[in-house]
Fold this protein.
Amino acid sequence: MMYYIVLPFGVILSLVFCWKRRLGYSVNNLIFKSVSSLCYLLTAVFALISNPQAHTYGSLVIMGGALGLVGDILLDLKGIYKSEEKVYLKGGFIFFLIGHIFYFCAIIYSIKMKWWLVLIAAVVSAVIGILTVLLANVMKVHYGAYRRIVAIYVAFLAMTSIISVIAVFATHFQKAYVIMAIGSILFLLSDAVLSNTFFGRGKDKPFHLFINHFLYYAGQYLIAASLVHIEQVIFLLFVISQFLQKFNAFIKSFITFLNSVFIYVVTNHIINHIFNS
């Protein structure tokens, strides 16, 4: 019940913040942003409460969202306290990076993704991270001292999107993973815009700030909303697992019964043959 209250309230609040965010950094906007981010985290929490069968997936997603909340605060502090800009920016990178680890681990665990698919996703993600830095001049951005952390972060960001897209096909377009995939892609697009506002020139206009936060919150709310639908996949896997275990036990019992019957018939036949002889 609370999920359906917090979700629309949070979405409206986040839209208001996106509009206010055009005016730049301020303590007032920091508070507004923190509350907006708290709402997507609460959306995930109440989604899990309404769907407790998704406890492992949900717990991992909530951890990722909580780390994102801290990252949000740090990135805004960067704009308020210019003297500590580098510290807050690196802190934001690290918290969001770890958050993405929780996100894609939630997907990998929930669908029991094959190791070789995870390996392919990791290699592709690493390539994307490296290319992002190598093509900085083409994209007209200057990463400077942040080249290494940008490459690593982009790799983990891409990993979430790639893993979620693989999950969509692996589960034959299960609703939960479709929502998760759309959310993770919007998150990726948001960071693409954010990268331009941080490291590009002339790309930190009100329009860019609005688009960045609009895509970001849309992505986070969709990721949180995926918890409501994850039950269908996990419960189905549980039912199939239970069925296979019981079927396996039945087959073993049946084979044991047939062996007993066979032994009885053969033994009886031998005894009859001996006495009749």
Remarks:
- The CA atoms of residues 57 and 106 lie 5 Å apart.
- The two ends are 82 Å apart (CA to CA).
- Helices lie at 3-20, 27-50, 55-80, 85-111, 115-134, 147-170, 175-199, 206-276.
- The chain has one domain: 3-233.
